[in-house]
Design brief:
Blueprint lengths: L8 E6 L2 H9 L8 E4 L3 E4 L1 H4 L9 H7 L4 E3 L3 H18 L3 E5 L2 E5 L4 H4 L2 H16 L3 E6 L2 H11 L4 E3 L5 H5 L12 H9 L5 H5 L3 H8 L1 H11 L15 E7 L9 H22 L3 E10 L4 E12 L2 H14 L1 H7 L1 E9 L16 H16 L16 E3 L5
Helix pairs in contact: 4-6, 11-12, 13-14
């Protein structure tokens, strides 16, 4: 296994990130149940979670469970600033930081004992620094592997610290429910439970072939390895983006949106994605559509272009075709979130020129980018977007 003999991998995870930022910035919200979002709960404070409220739950259901909760609109710019400040603390702690999302990361502190102390001392100082410098609570799990460090942080929440010593790994892991294993969602857990498999220890007692017969070959191998704490992944920095994406939560309002209103959301998302691609000097070939529905199920569709591009029009055309093909599904299930990503990223930014040549589109894109860079993103807006309620933008991360 490519792991240190010491427990020196930290999994740092901010507690109820969006809700914690709101409670930090508004003292009247501290100690009270807070819901961030409208039609869909984007985040819930621990006071609200105590009533059974969960992220991605419908707003009406959340208010039934916790009628005295305070509902606040999301402030994505505030969350982005808070995330940047927290990651600055991470990088001040160690150069080996691997971002998992806007509110969590793995840190490798194996080589810092002489200059910074033990992993527990480093984690205690990190938690204090995040609290003092950013004003947010954070939980840290410490273990030899990334998998077990993340499980430790889950067990230590909220606002805690937990070390899993190398000689106590399986004693800690095996009594936990199967949902603690990466990749085990509700459906897989139900399937395992139906066969009398409830804990990680139950999984560890099965052979790899038996697990494969229950959940498939790849998943069976993964569960067998994780149930014995076999995780060969290192903490890696500077992970390359494999896609550029953006998404918007529509809430229950998505059910009432006309095709023209949905198209406005599509135009806005693709406009943002292609602008980011051009700013980063990236092109891509595959357009991916992601949908979430009223019943919290999801669907994904994709289309691969014949050439890599960052131009708005060809990517928008592919996006519109994907939405049109998914229209019956949207009408049947009700739409609560729509997102897009462009993958097949070419880091060189090379674009294939096609005949007949159309020099106007790249020139228009470049001109729009220059105006927005100089005067702000709202300086130029597509006519279809004027006066539209486009829902709530939800942060996305590199794949």
């Amino acid at each position: 296994m490519f792991v240190s003999c010491d427990a020196a991998i930290l999994h740092a995870d901010l507690d109820s990130f969006y809700a914690s930022v709101e409670q930090r910035d508004d003292p009247t919200l501290r100690g009270r149940p807070v819901l961030v979002g409208g039609g869909v709960v984007l985040a819930a404070s621990y006071e609200a979670k105590a009533y059974g409220v969960r992220t991605a739950m419908g707003g009406a259901q959340a208010r039934r469970l916790c009628p005295h909760a305070v509902l606040v609109p999301p402030r994505m710019s505030a969350y982005s600033r808070a995330s940047d400040a927290v990651f600055e603390v991470f990088r001040d702690t160690t150069p080996l930081v691997e971002a998992v999302s806007v509110d969590e990361a793995f840190l490798d502190v194996a080589g810092l004992r002489r200059v910074s102390g033990t992993p527990v001392q480093i984690a205690e100082r990190l938690r204090a620094d995040v609290r003092d410098r950013v004003g947010l609570p954070i939980t840290v799990g410490i273990a030899r592997t990334k998998f077990l460090a993340k499980v430790a942080s889950q067990e230590a929440k909220p606002d805690g610290l937990l070390l899993v010593p190398p000689d106590g790994e399986l004693a800690f892991l095996h009594p936990l429910p199967v949902r603690r294993l990466w990749g085990v969602g509700a459906k897989t857990a139900d399937k395992l439970n139906a066969h009398g498999i409830h804990t990680v220890a139950d999984v560890a007692e099965l052979g790899e072939s038996m697990l494969a017969s229950l959940v498939g070959g790849a998943m069976g191998r993964q569960l067998f390895a994780l149930s014995h704490n076999v995780d060969r992944r290192r903490v890696t920095t500077g992970v390359r983006r494999r896609s550029v994406g953006a998404q918007r939560a529509l809430g229950r309002a998505g059910n009432r949106m006309t095709p023209a209103e949905v198209d406005a959301v599509v135009v806005n998302l693709i406009d943002r994605i292609t602008g980011r691609m051009r700013a980063a000097g990236r092109t891509g070939r595959t357009v991916v559509l992601r949908l979430r529905f009223d019943d919290f199920t999801r669907a994904t569709r994709s289309h691969t272009l014949p050439w890599a591009t960052s131009s708005t029009q060809p990517i928008l055309g592919a996006a519109r075709r994907l939405v049109a093909a998914a229209a019956p599904l949207i009408a049947q299930r009700g739409l609560t979130l729509v997102g897009f990503a462009v993958s097949g990223i070419d880091r060189s930014g090379a674009q294939q020129l096609m005949l007949p040549l159309d020099p106007e589109a790249p020139m228009v894109d470049a001109a729009v980018d220059q105006v927005r860079h100089r005067f702000g993103k709202s300086a130029l807006t597509r006519g279809v977007l004027i006066g539209r309620d486009l829902g709530i933008e939800v942060p996305t991360l590199p794949d």
